[in-house]
Write a structure and sequence with these properties.
Strand order of the largest sheet: 1-7-6-5-4-3-2
Number of strands: 7
Distance between the termini: 41 Å
Largest sheet: 7 strands, antiparallel
Radius of gyration: 15 Å
Strand content: 35-45%
Order of helices and strands: EHHEEEEEEHH
CATH superfamily: START domain
Number of helices: 4
CATH topology: Alpha-D-Glucose-1,6-Bisphosphate, Chain A, domain 4
CATH architecture: 2-Layer Sandwich
Number of domains: 1
Length: 144
């Protein structure tokens, strides 16, 4: 059984602001709780860009590389090219009026290895994690 989790958050900032912040992986350590280190390709984020991350999740340190496979004004989708298990992460940014954005994070994957042990709880942990990330993003962007 695969993993498919989505979290959403209304952020009182224009879509372009939210999209620009999320699309710049150098901001990841500011709003994604488990991220410890980020390294990305030079230049602006584009289809084909790669992002290397070191993160802590479920008590383990993991390193993975994601590649941007889709990017437009409404979403950014990445797939893993090096990770503990195959996954796809999609960030959405839908305008809600002129000054607000419905931000979302969808995580799809097929946990393997160590993570198969906790597979029944994996969805719960991922949902809690990405929901917390979006709450941090909201606080950060609405306070600036």
């Amino acid at each position: 059984m695969g993993l498919d989790v989505t979290a959403r958050q209304l952020i009182k900032r224009p879509r372009a602001d939210v999209a620009a912040f999320i699309s710049d992986a150098r901001n990841d350590t500011k709003w994604i709780g488990g991220i410890r280190f980020v390294e990305m390709d030079e230049g602006p984020t584009r289809v084909g860009s790669r992002v290397k991350r070191t993160a802590a999740f479920m008590g383990k340190q993991i390193e993975y590389v994601n590649e941007v496979v889709e990017l437009d004004e409404r979403h950014l989708a990445m797939r893993s090219v090096q990770s503990p298990f195959p996954m796809r992460v999609t960030y959405g940014f839908d305008a809600d009026g002129t000054d607000a954005t419905r931000a979302s994070v969808r995580v799809e994957g097929d946990p393997s290895g160590f993570y198969t042990i906790g597979r029944p709880l994996m969805g719960f942990f991922v949902k809690r994690s990405v929901s917390g990330d979006l709450k941090r993003l909201k606080r950060l962007l609405e306070s600036s």
